[in-house]
Design brief:
five-stranded mixed beta sheet; about 10% strand; Glutaredoxin; 5 strands; alpha+beta
Length: about 210
Amino acid sequence: MKRPLRLLALTAVLTCLLGAAPGDPKEGEQYVRLKHPVSGVDARQVVEVFWYDCPDSYAFEKPLEDWAARQHPAVKVVRIPAAWPDQPDQLAYARLFYTLDRLGLAEREALAVFRAVRDRHQSLTTEKKVLAWAAGQGLDVDAVRGAYRSRAVTDAVKAAPALRERYQVVEEPTVVVGGRFRTSPFLAGSDAATVSALDHLYRTARSS
């Protein structure tokens, strides 16, 4: 019995040395390497590209939040609204995101926006509708109006399509780790598999 045990031990050691376990997500399957790495970002930066009117983004929001909260320290996910310059609704929801972000409310109100848009089928694509929603949420309507109309938010919305392109994202939701690796429910196959790929990429980011 000693020889098989020694072989098992040797296999375990080699697996650790190689840095990959048999069950780990695999490059080219659950995640891919960006052709052009994003420069100037931390190796453990976690970016999510999403759209408030996307059912898959809505479904992935809670699993992503839960994963981020479980890390030590908790991960601050960088949110980027999915925006194409010829898609007015996406640009309108990008304005809503940047409005909330400017007020420090984007993370707190994320699920509330998703519920309004996806569950109650509210269109939050105009200032009037956004302000009505904000009033219903008990937010400072004047502050929301000011941010919505601000030059900073307008500039952020204009820059959103280029920011998405910088991370080479063509679908939402998508997660990019360290500006180098990309995964998504479409690529990984499910929200759970995406979180598994994200966790693997995050844990190995420093050494990859």
